[in-house]
Amino acid sequence: MQQAVNLIRSSEDILILTHKNPDGDAVGSVLGLADALESVGKNVKCFSKDIVPDVFDFLPNISKIKNQTVPEKYDLVILLDCALFSRTGIDNIKDIASSFNDILIIDHHPKNQTECDHYEKCIFIIDPKVSSSAVLVYELLKNADIEITKNIANCLLTGIFTDTGGFQHSNTDSQSLEAAAEFMKKGSRVDKITKNIFNSKSMAAIKLWGIALSRIKTDAKTGMAVSYVSKKDIEDSGAKEEDLSGLVNVINTVSDAKFSLLLTEFENRKIKGSLRSEEYKGIDVSRIARSLGGGGHKLASGFEFDGDLQNNVAKISEMILKANRK
Length: 326
Ligand code: 5GP
Ligand code: MN
Prior knowledge:
This protein is an alpha/beta fold. Helix content is about 35%, strand content about 20%. The protein has 2 domains: about 1-195, inorganic pyrophosphatase (n-terminal core), CATH 3.90.1640; about 205-325, Diaminopimelate Epimerase, Chain A, domain 1. A hairpin with a 4-residue loop joins strand 7 and strand 8 (about 225-230). The protein is globular and about 55 Å long.
């Protein structure tokens, strides 16, 4: 942590990157950190390969996250909410990263340091025990004596809120709640974040959720509850792919399933899998995700699969069955 603070103090131009398909923790952590670093005079640029979902438009400085080409001249590059440059989804990023001077990696996904990207000057703040990267950013800002403003508080509270599923998942711990309390003292409000993130869906999105929910099947062999949404479903509904965020958590409420899977066809022949489980069910879905080339947390993971949806739901179920037997 101290090395990271020193690195930040000695850097002027800072680039912040995060993973593709940025979620609330990625977006909130990036914006909170960017705002804080700017408040102490740094030049900060933020970049995401994918467009930030509209649901985060309520965050104060949302337009700061750009999705243009990554500029190459920086004193410091911070990789946030992932530990591998390949997770940014940026073309040639591994080559680009080798030209970076200093790199700070801040992440809370379970990983051995040996599995992370190592470049010559790389400092890691990695703690899989914390609920969210936003908590790690908060710890960093406290160590750097940077004041938490209301804007920073709003961004970081959004990160904790989304990664804990609105303070419902088993990663909701005292550290997260204490950080949330500090943010509320700065004027941030949980009810506003709840309204913006969970409770303002379009009619088209709700109807699309209905289609996916009506298709849920439980599979006795794997113990999973599974559903899927095709590209055509999304197009026909008039909703957007990002409107499916949170749906897998509802599929995961089927109490007699051991875990849940939502398959979304986001491009032709490209499928995204989202896996969820609950602590008491004794399943580690990150193992399943890793066996399919993805990753994530014990109770919330994901993977991508090349192929069309029609022919692959059964095949993916079969691969999951195998992964579970190992
Ligand atoms: P979600 O299902 O919400 O997209 O992702 C759940 C968790 O799994 C998040 O922490 C996310 O970063 C991680 N995750 C999702 N997809 C992938 C993937 O393709 N690769 C890796 N390594 N992690 C993923
Ligand atoms: Mn996260």
